[in-house]
Structures are given as structure tokens and as C-alpha cells.
Amino acid sequence: MTDDQLLRYSRHILLEEISVEGQQRLMDGHALVIGAGGLGSPVALYLGTAGVGRITLVDNDTVDVTNLQRQIAHSLARVGQPKAQSARQAIAAINPDPQVEAIALRADAALLDELVPQADAVVDCCDNFATRHAINAACVKHGKPLVSGAAIRFDGQVSVYDTRDQASPCYACVFPPSEQVEETRCATLGVFAPLVGIIGAIQAAEALKLLSGAGMPLAGRLQMLDARSMEWTEVRVPRQAACPVCRGRAPVH
What we know:
There is one protein chain. This protein has helices at residues 3-8, 10-13, 19-28, 40-49, 83-94, 109-115, 129-142, 171-174, 186-189, 193-212, and strands spanning 30-34, 54-58, 99-103, 121-124, 146-152, 155-161, 221-226, 231-236. It has 253 residues and is an alpha/beta fold. Strands 3-2-1-4-5-6-7-8 form an eight-stranded mixed β-sheet, sandwiched between helices. The protein is globular and about 50 Å long.
């Protein structure tokens, strides 16, 4: 770690739960972020400012003026650019240290099979259930921890799914893929701008904890926020022995 890096990351290094060793783990770490919109913006920026060594951003959308109400990684000057590339520029403007790869493709099963094994932590910032389940299946298959968040209207939720821990559920344990779920889009229902910042910041915190080894992850606990009253509800979510995705990976305790 250079003198410049010791100075830049000094506020992390001062934390005994992180210190020089944990900061070095962040700098050696690789985070895969799926989605560079409302949730992905604060995730990408906080992972970048924290000095995560490699960040892969995946998003097949482009920046639109309607995104700027909440997607803080983007700017008016970058309207029309791929969101992944715009977020990479936003990170570089704050911290040139991370190696950021921008992939302007949809995160389908084939791409996830290629990218997930390379990552130390995966952060799901997408906006649809099909992609969430594809990300979860890839994380279970390759034994990678998943930080998942969602936000619509005034309602947000966040959790960590880490099937390296025998007791931890996967996303499909909590939200079975067989369930008929009505897709909700902020383009039709709206979203409270700071909500994605709150949920995205928690996702970034959980990813940084996983990468650095600091603290206790949110695995097995689903946190839900009603931003109308700013009230949090936490639900303990056990692993399901009959889960079609993670059963057979390890015994359930």
C-alpha cells in the first residue's frame, strides 16, 4: 500500500474491524455489480471510493434524463451513454485506483456463468425477478455470496444470501421461482429518490463487510423499509430444505 493509499483510506484503516489488513483485502477484492441504476449507483460509488481493487459493472441500459432524479452516478452530460460506462467514469472521477470493467450487456445465464466465478462478492442491483433468480442460481452454483436489494415506490428490502454458510438461505428460499410475481417498474409506479440511496448504501456496506471480513453479514435476515414512516422491519429467513436451487449444496442445520 502506497503512502497516497494510506492517506486516502486512513479513515477505514483507523477502524480496528478493518485496519490495514482489511483495507488490503478490499484492494485485493473483486466485486461484481449487476445493475448501474438507482441501487447500482451508490453501490458502485461506495465500492469505488472504498478502494475495492476490481469492480465489474453490468447493465445493458443507457442513461435517460428520467434517471437523474435518483441515479446519482450519472449526469446530464452522459445522457445516452451506457449506464455501466457512465458509472465507471463516476468512479474514476473520485478514485482512479480501482480497475473498473463496464459491460453493457444483459446479465443472462451465460454471462453470469462467466463473471460470477471471478468475483469475491456479487451485488444484485437489478430491477426484475427473472434476473434476480438468474443471479442467485449462478451464485449458488459457484459458491459466491450475494447481496440483494430492491426498491419501489416507498418500499425497500435488502439481505445477504451466502450459501457458503450451511444455515444461510438463497434468494429462492425466500422468494421461490415458482411463485407468480407481478413485475413492478418505477417507470409506472414511481420510486422515492432517497430510497434507492438508502438501500444501495446498505448493499455497499454489506459487500464491503464481506470483502474486508469486518462485522457480521446480513445473511439469514431480510430487512424491509417503509420510507413513508421510516420504519424498519426485520424478518429471520431460514434456509429451505426443499429449495429447488440450493438443496443438495450442503446439509441444512
